[in-house]
Amino acid sequence: MGSITPKPAPPTPQPWVETPLYRSSILSRFAGCNIYLKLETLQPSGSFKSRGIGNLMSRAISKYPPNTPVRFYCSSGGNAGLACATAALSLSQSCTIVVPFTTSAFMIEKLKSLGAEVVQVGEHWAAADQHLREQLLGKDKTGVYVPPFDHPDLWEGHASIVDEMERQMGKRGGYDAVVCSVGGGGLFAGIMEGLERYGRLEGERKMSVLAVETEGARSLALSVEKGVLSRLGAITTIANSLGATQVAPRAFEYTKRYPENVASVVLSDAEAAIGSVCFADDERVIVEAACGVSIATAYNGTIRNIVGGGCSDEEFVRKNVVIVVCGGSNISLDVLEKYKETYGKDEKVVKGFGKRLSL
What we know:
By secondary structure, the chain is of the alpha/beta class.
């Protein structure tokens, strides 16, 4: 009998999907140029984090012999934890998500429904992360740490957004700017990595990148202002998914490498909240305030001021701007209604959103 050639191990499944990109007629009307939406809210976990965390976890599995069980450890009760649990389920692996006691029961139930082991420790993320590293990960020889935003594999995964945008926007004449929210800076670093790879940050048609934060989580803006990587004393924002007191060093490095391309934008909690409310009304898509802050730039004139600076209305109307709708799962219709009640009559917001809130 001849020898039997063993079948190769099946390829590791990709724990994220290509997302649609389309032109929003209503946001384009308010912004004054062509606004395209990259719908990362349609990722399996509900946010862009499926890309970076999914990429990191897939790469980690590939380093072990086939069929080796791997347990992933992530200290996050937010979108990173959901992305880890969702990817672990699709990769047929186990995971432990360590969350602080401040994590809502709503999010904990979501994590458990995905099969994750959930451990509650400490009053904040740092305490949960310390427990994970010292008490859990150190005792598991095949355990893999899943960081929320500061790792090359994460940035590589997020850069796949640009790969898709290049194909999708190529059919529409290219694009002039990208708008993305910044928390720990993982998404921003990935976007910059992708744009750099395609040469979009140099040449005649240099790309503008609007890196958007809320006032209470302006860690990137603080670093840009001081010219050195800096840390916030505290996070004071409703957009808690942006709650990193210091951005990843790689994110700050990109602002120094491409100062003419990157615009650090800081908006209020009210603008972020009403951005989410208006987006739900106009596009029938619900997103966290951490995403709404980027959406708000189309409503309140920010894109016109930055991308259209120095050009006429006739020139600006031809600009193509992509907003990365990063998503987020810690949102509901009840929360949106509370945002509307709390911030809908804020005089600065009403003035900034102008035509939109006068409808």
